[in-house]
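One chain is below:
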Amino acid sequence: MPHILVIGAGVIGLQTANDLLDAGYKVTILAKHWPGDESIEYASPWAGAIWRPQGSASETEVCDWQMQSYKYWTEIIEKRPGEAEEMGIQLLPLTLLTYVSLPSPPPL
């Protein structure tokens, strides 16, 4: 198996590393800040992870990625509720403010 470098030890970096380890990869995490650190530069202790890709991806691609993420996190919450609670994984409402209109998401 390849050796994979994960950059960042926030919510997303740690979960990515965990999933790669579960899949059998060797993983190294490179991070300036770690869980337990209190720094304004380390967002995870202060804010949850919001997975919404930015950049030039089409809205169709973005919507597809978001639905995959939603299903992934919901599955963890449903199949491993104790672990999810211990890790602080929960679904919360989000209000997204933008300067442009966004298409409505497909039904869940």
Summary: The first strand starts at residue 3 and ends at 7. The radius of gyration is 16 Å.
